[in-house]
Protein: Amine oxidase domain-containing protein
Amino acid sequence: MNGVNNIKSVNIAGGGIAGLSSAHLLKRNGYYPIVYEKESNIGKSRHGDYEGIENWIFPTEINSFFGQLGFNFSKIHSFPISKFYVHSKSNKPLLITHPQPFFHMIKRGYKETDLDFQLYNQCKSSGVEFRFGQKAPNNCNIIATGTSKAVAYIKGINFKTDLKDQIHLLLGNKFAPKGYAYLIILDGNATLATAFKKTKTKQKDTINNCKDYFESIGLSIPQGNSFASRGSFSLPFGPNQEPYKVGEAGGYQDYLFGFGIRMSMISGMGAALYILGRKKEAKNVFRILNHKRRLSFINRFLYEKLNDNQMSVIVNKLSKSNDPLSILSGIYGWNTKNILRWIKLKYRFETRPT
Structure:
């Protein structure tokens, strides 16, 4: 372990939320983590866009979840979201509500109110060492450098607005092929974005289609500041050994809708537990993580098979439910083997000659 057991020094490549989670937990347990970040600041690669921390994939309450890693969630600038609108082809906008938050909305980036910067501040207060603008050494114990592959893409606009707080989810091939689009307005700041996968057909002007749609229903979208990012839908599995790959570097994300913050942070926690010698706990963490991401991969596969009309049917059922949060939780609680058998049987039937 490159001397970790002797001097308790741990090298971490990458200062994203997974790397920060590992570093903070290690520091609070008497180790000396050093985070190597190629950028000049934590969160520099993000754009101040909104992102959600979901409350349906993992059951742990948000304050307790952050507390497991030694973070204080009350110091994180966030907005609990218990209602949002869904727009689809065959329906007028439908309101989805629940007494408990579906997710907590945060901003990603390097400014004082952004999640990345706030986690960095808590790490610094704990004594974690950061080395900015430096290439990580070859003997890193944890790799948290993000993904090098690009299968999914996000295009968006951040802008200021006088519109009241509101959240919209927009579904349809015109707006986000095999994906989804969203408009988030909170406290005078807004993000309009489309998350999509490239298709074999000619690519649509998705972000402008989204903009035109929202303006057609009376929501003005100014020019704002454009941004773009990418993600991977690969599903790598391998032995948990050094160097531990966490976050997107290890494929730890929600493949269905991209709610990857919890998965990234939990993977960072699992790697730290291995280094701390708490192997039984670490193995359990990765067992749960791998089960959830397998299910999210299957959910993504099924989601991509839906046409616009089928999406509308599902949205309609969700809006009529008394407990839509439990429905969302339920799609991460399937028996993996049974659902894989169902998919194989379905495709065997579909390809049988008539």
User: Anything to note?
Assistant: Residues 345-354 have pLDDT under 50 and may be disordered. The longest strand covers residues 152-160. The two ends are 60 Å apart (CA to CA). The chain has two domains: 4-79+105-148+233-301, 152-231.
